[in-house]
Amino acid sequence: MKPHLYLFIIIGLLFTSNCYAQKPEDTEDWTRKPAVVTPGEGTTPPSDAIILYNNPSDRDKWEGTTGEIKWTTKGSTLEVAKGTGEIHTRQKFGDIQLHIEWSSPKKVSGNGQGRGNSGIFLMGLYEVQVLDSYQNETYYNGQAGSIYKQSAPLVNACRKPGEWQSYDILFTAPRFNPDKTLKSPAYVTVLHNGVLIQNHFQLTGKTLFIGKPEYTYHESRLPIVLQDHGNPVRYRNIWVRDLSSNP
Ligand code: MG
Q: How far, in Å, from the CA of 127 to the mean position of ligand 1?
């Protein structure tokens, strides 16, 4: 072969390889620009959060089973008033990031499930247990930070009675098919006082006191419920970020 043919082949190969070579921009994603969010200072809400309770003027964001809530509001705290029933948000949510702070009574009374018991029912159905689990033994899938009767927390990160504690909860709501059968289950991740205690746990159904949980069809958005279990548990600094794309 003549030398100039070699040159043509080499140029040709270089040209072809250049055409098919992958470029850095091939793997750049420009489809969705992330919204700008101003983070909170410490545990204060970020700019896109919905504040559910910060002071008594937030009372009307909640409802009791028979109208207005009967729980006690004192400044920044919302306290369970024994026997007045659960309360729920007026707004409905599906997928969320929830920050909530709670404190079990400083004066210890009762034991096991009877000590500082309340709960956060995501969609009103799936309970993240609130309990004074500081040196207080109960069944593990019923202690603080458990997904009640489904999953014990990975560790016990409880502070002493009367001290403020936080839960940061990431919840993915279950999805249902048009025929109302389950399409995908719910998942929950929980940090208790900044410590991971539930890591993308797959729920087996709605929380039940007795029996095996299972899923039953429900709406894609439902209120968040706080439980009255007869103990004066206090809550404060409750905010949520709505992660659902569905209406
Ligand atoms: Mg409870």
A: 7
Tell how far the Cα of 131 is from the centroid of ligand 1, in angstroms: 7
Strand-pair partners of 127: 121
Phi and psi dihedrals of 16, rounded to 5?
-65, -45
Q: For residue 227, report the distance from its CA to the centre of ligand 1, in Å.
A: 6
CA distance 236 to 229: 18
pTM over 0.85: yes
| DSSP character at residue 199 | E
- The CA dihedral of 127, 128, 131, 134, to the nearest 10 degrees, is 150
Q: Which tens digit of pLDDT belongs to each residue from 181-229?
A: 999 999 999 999 999 999 999 999 999 999 999 999 999 999 999 999 9
For residue 62, report the distance from its CA to the centre of ligand 1, in Å: 19
Domains of the chain as residue ranges with CATH: 36-242 (2.60.120.560)
Q: Which two tokens stand for residue 219?
A: 């709406």
Residue 119 CB: number of other CB atoms within 10 A?
21
Q: What is the pLDDT of residues 25-41, one digit of tens each?
A: 999 999 999 999 999 99
Q: Are 99 and 168 in contact (CB under 8 A)?
A: yes
Residue with tokens 């964001």: 61
Cα(224)–Cα(110) distance, integer angstroms: 27
- Dist. CA 217 → ligand 1 center (Å): 23
For ligand 1, the distance from its centroid to the CA atom of residue 18, given in whole angstroms, is: 64
